[in-house]
Design brief:
Subcellular location: Endosome
GO biological process, one term: endosome transport via multivesicular body sorting pathway
Protein name: Vacuolar protein sorting-associated protein 28 homolog
CATH architecture of the largest domain: Up-down Bundle
Number of domains: 2
Strand content: under 5%
CATH class of the largest domain: Mainly Alpha
Number of helices: 9
Shape: flat
Distance between the termini: 10 Å
CATH superfamily of the largest domain: Vps28 N-terminal domain
CATH topology of the largest domain: de novo design (two linked rop proteins)
InterPro entries: ESCRT_assembly_dom, Vps28, VPS28_C, VPS28_C_sf, VPS28_N, VPS28_N_sf
GO cellular component, one term: ESCRT I complex
Largest sheet: none
Order of helices and strands: HHHHHHHHH
Length: 224
């Protein structure tokens, strides 16, 4: 089966190379306007990519685990991208899609359900654990890149990440990513709620989380 990993970017939202999209989002040259169009292009690309992923999964071009990880990441990116353009003009994603004639029914279904199709609406589902882990990795890394670095903002997500990884039987007991997350939890346990990580710590934590996320994806790939 072909891998779908290349379709989903490692950081931030997807970028589109669709010429028609570029034309629709042509900038006026003013800084604020340029940012507005860039944000719309980001959302357009995420929705298109999600549509492509759904089609790839239906055609058996990706494994369920690859699909779940990629879809979970795209849904996180969608939420972030939509917040950037939400306004009176675009009060809903449907309004955005209508404005730019985006025909992506499969992507719209994923957005409405807010979960990959592989995740059943029940407790204890393995795929749900995988999706939650992907979402937590992305959320924490995004917070750090946005310079959110106080203990009380990061510790809850890190703790949830650790607990969710411990619940997933696919992850081996000696998985390095769990050890790294637990080390950071120990570091933060000695901090006050308002204490912040310094620049060096932020850089190291991002590196550790990215390494752990990549290792987690390898575990998923090897388990298929």
């Amino acid at each position: 089966m072909a891998s779908f990993a290349g379709l989903v970017p490692s950081h931030g939202t997807a970028k589109t190379t669709d010429p028609s999209c570029t034309k629709r989002f042509d900038s006026t040259g003013r800084p604020r306007e340029r940012e507005k169009y860039d944000n719309m292009a980001d959302l357009y690309a995420v929705i298109n990519t999600l549509q492509c992923l759904e089609k790839a999964y239906i055609k058996d071009c990706v494994t369920p685990k690859e699909y779940t990880a990629a879809c979970s990441k795209l849904l996180v990116q969608y939420k972030s991208a939509f917040k950037q353009i939400q306004s009176d003009e675009f009060s809903s994603v449907e309004a955005f899609m209508k404005k730019f004639r985006l025909d992506c029914p499969a992507a719209m279904e994923r957005i409405r359900e807010d979960r990959p199709i592989t995740i059943k609406d029940d407790k204890g589902n393995t795929s749900k654990c995988i999706a939650d882990i992907v979402s937590l990795f992305i959320t924490i890394i995004d917070k750090l890149r946005l310079e959110i670095k106080s203990m009380d903002e990061l510790h809850p997500d890190l703790r949830e990440l650790s607990e969710t990884m411990n619940r997933l039987s696919l992850i081996p007991a000696d998985f390095e990513g769990k050890a790294k997350v637990d080390e950071w939890l120990q570091t933060m346990s000695s901090m006050a709620a308002s204490d912040e990580l310094n620049e060096s710590q932020v850089r190291q934590l991002i590196f550790d989380l990215e390494s752990s996320y990549n290792a987690f994806n390898r575990v998923l790939h090897n388990s298929t």
